[in-house]
Design a protein that fits this description.
- This protein is an alpha+beta fold and 114 residues long.
- It contains 3 helices and 6 strands, in the order αβββααβββ.
- Strands 1, 2, 3, 4, 5 and 6 form a 6-stranded antiparallel sheet that branches.
- The longest helix is centred in the middle third of the chain and has 21 residues.
- It is globular, with a radius of gyration of 14 Å.
């Protein structure tokens, strides 16, 4: 697999990537906690390597997640809630895509850390 910090830098995370460590013990996707430094502030994100054996159509998967979270975000706002805390927020790549594919064909997605 590619260097996970270099992959994290492909996402539109706020700040400089200073740390990227395995997070949790999932059985399907590999999950990492990314810490970015922006001045005096640290921002945290989740970076996941999507298991293509389980999810072979990553584009369709991410489009679906984007649609569902967008719908939920609208409902949460209408109810007076906080969508940044009550649903997933996809962080796009620096190219504006919902996921990144590395040179090995491995796919990664980014979320705000809740």
């Amino acid at each position: 697999m590619s260097n996970i910090i270099e992959i994290a830098k492909k996402f539109n995370f706020d700040g400089e990537v200073v740390q990227c460590n395995p997070y949790g013990s999932g059985h399907i996707n590999a999950t990492y906690l990314v810490v970015c430094q922006n001045g005096n502030r640290q921002n945290r994100y989740i970076l996941q390597q999507i298991n293509r054996g389980i999810f072979p159509e990553v584009g369709r998967l991410m489009d679906n997640i984007n649609q569902v979270t967008g719908f939920l975000r609208q409902k949460i706002i209408q109810a007076g809630g906080n969508p940044l805390r009550e649903t997933l927020t996809i962080v796009p790549t620096i190219e504006g895509k919902l996921y990144y594919t590395d040179e090995n064909g491995d796919c990664f997605r980014g979320y705000l850390f809740i």
